[in-house]
Specification:
Largest sheet: 6 strands, mixed
Distance between the termini: 7 Å
Radius of gyration: 17 Å
Helix content: 10-25%
Structural class: alpha+beta
Number of strands: 12
Shape: globular
């Protein structure tokens, strides 16, 4: 079984690339983030014609998460328990979607960006991650053998090695101690980064900004992860980052992250 996560940065603009990734990597499950469309706007026809099922939650042109599966879609859950709201008036954003696919509970997650340190969105991000940690820990406490993947765009670079230049990011979001501690809290709750052991080379990133020729200069960040429960992590036989998908006209600014299960 092969699963993957990818911040597609507008599925309507990149549905051909989505179909290419599904076919090229022979994926069983693909989790998407930042689909940027309502449910009725998702280009579902090519996905379904290729034999996949789809679950999606999107309310407008922002955020949006999806799960595409050819091994079944069951027990769809929009948002985790007590997921924070944001804005005025406060609303629940389309940032988390839980689906059971082939016996694996996958969560497509689009963690809030945080914008800048001290901004109310930064506080929202930390609250969001803490609520996720509490729920994720409860899932394992209820059943330590649950096979769970928390995958998506975390908008956090957990270590200095996950950014191209630590001085450039000093004082900015994604690298602050509270954000890194929030990420580590989920790891400490029992979820392992199953991709890093297979992609440990220096300057291995999953995101490159569109500006300043960041991609050809290899000036990126590693912010897309698959954190797996012990029972699922034990099944992992390999992982990779499809850097080639970041190339060419019309590419997303993120690369797909793939995980192989026995």
């Amino acid at each position: 079984m092969r699963i993957a996560t990818w911040n597609v940065n507008s599925v309507r603009s990149r549905i051909d690339r989505v179909m290419g990734v599904l076919e090229r990597h022979d994926l069983d499950v693909l989790m998407l983030q930042e689909t940027k469309c309502r449910d009725d706007q998702f280009p579902a026809m090519p996905v379904q014609a290729a034999g996949y099922e789809l679950a999606h939650v999107g309310y407008n042109q922002w955020n949006g998460v999806a799960v595409i599966s050819r091994v079944g879609i069951e027990d769809v859950q929009v948002g985790f328990e007590d997921m924070p709201t944001y804005g005025g008036p406060a609303v629940s954003e389309a940032r988390a979607l839980g689906v059971t696919c082939g016996g694996v509970r996958v969560w497509s997650l689009y963690v809030p960006n945080g914008r800048e340190v001290g901004h109310e969105h930064y506080d929202y991000k930390l609250d969001w991650l803490e609520r996720l940690r509490v729920d994720a820990a409860k899932w394992l406490a209820d059943d330590p053998q649950d096979q769970i993947a928390l995958a998506g765009d975390w908008n956090i670079a957990p270590t200095d090695a996950d950014v191209w230049d630590t001085e450039f990011f000093e004082g900015r979001t994604h690298v602050t101690p509270p954000e890194r501690a929030a990420f580590q809290g989920i790891v400490d709750a029992g979820y392992a980064d199953v991709v890093r052991p297979y992609t440990s080379e220096p300057r291995t990133f999953t995101y490159w900004d569109y500006t300043q020729l960041r991609f050809p200069k290899k000036q990126g960040m590693r912010i897309d992860f698959a954190l797996c429960s012990p029972a699922l992590a034990a099944r992992v036989t390999g992982a990779s980052i499809d850097r080639e998908e970041r190339k060419g006209k019309g590419a997303s600014d993120h690369a797909p992250v793939l995980v192989d299960l026995d």
